[in-house]
Write a structure and sequence with these properties.
The protein is mainly alpha-helical. The chain has twelve helices and no strands. Helix 3 packs antiparallel against helix 4 and helix 10 runs antiparallel to helix 11. The longest helix is centred in the first third of the chain and has 18 residues. The radius of gyration is 23 Å and the shape is elongated.
């Protein structure tokens, strides 16, 4: 029959076994970085399937503080091969684990935009902008989604906000020109089209 001290020793032994058997805790930082690299770097894998497998390993190995990022990273891998439903699911999981994860909100908006879910995309961009009000990617994404759904005034306002922060952003001028032209404002459309050409020639892609 166990005494109190025996029970304490048994519980401690079980706790130590649990710690040592935990893959996240058993790995050092170098090993974790290698596993993470296999997920986030396309060139580290010979195929999309191998990259997803690497991401699964990254999720299984990541400590709690990095679990949201691991789901976000796999979401990016799914997005890169246009598996949009799976990308949205992983970004959603990352957001559940870390509600202030601005990049996950932005990326879910991007994926939802590619799905054609423009209203949901705008909601995600809005949340990203609450977390980072001057995030150019989120401002641009919201403007583009607004343009795709036909809200030209919102699109123009969004591109204008982008240009205010980044005056050398040629694509913002290009898309604002299209929005102005759709509204029948040929004067502003022409002005933006000329600025787009100037910036494109100055900074060839």
């Amino acid at each position: 029959m166990f005494g109190t001290s025996d029970m304490i020793r048994l519980n401690l032994s079980l706790a130590i076994i649990a710690i040592l058997s935990s893959p996240a805790l058993a790995l050092d930082n170098t090993q974790l970085q290698k596993i993470e690299h296999g997920c986030i770097d396309e060139t580290a894998s010979s195929s999309p399937e191998e990259r997803i497998s690497n991401c699964n390993n990254w999720i299984d190995s990541a400590p709690d503080k990095l679990r949201a990022k691991a789901y976000y990273d796999r979401g990016n891998a799914y997005l890169d091969v246009q598996k949009l439903d799976l990308a949205v699911a992983d970004y959603s999981h990352a957001i559940t684990l870390k509600p202030d994860f601005k990049d996950a909100w932005y990326s879910r908006g991007y994926a939802r935009h590619d799905q054609g879910n423009y209203d949901q995309a705008i909601e995600d961009y809005d949340t990203a902008l609450k977390l980072a009000p001057e995030d150019i990617d989120s401002l641009y994404g919201k403007a583009y989604a607004s343009q795709k759904k036909g809200d030209l005034d919102a699109a123009i306002a969004g591109y204008t906000a982008v240009i205010r922060l980044k005056p050398d952003y040629p694509t913002a001028f290009y898309n604002r020109a299209i929005a102005y032209n759709a509204k029948g404002d040929t004067e502003n459309a022409t002005r933006d089209a000329l600025e787009y050409e100037r910036l494109k020639d100055k900074n060839p892609q």
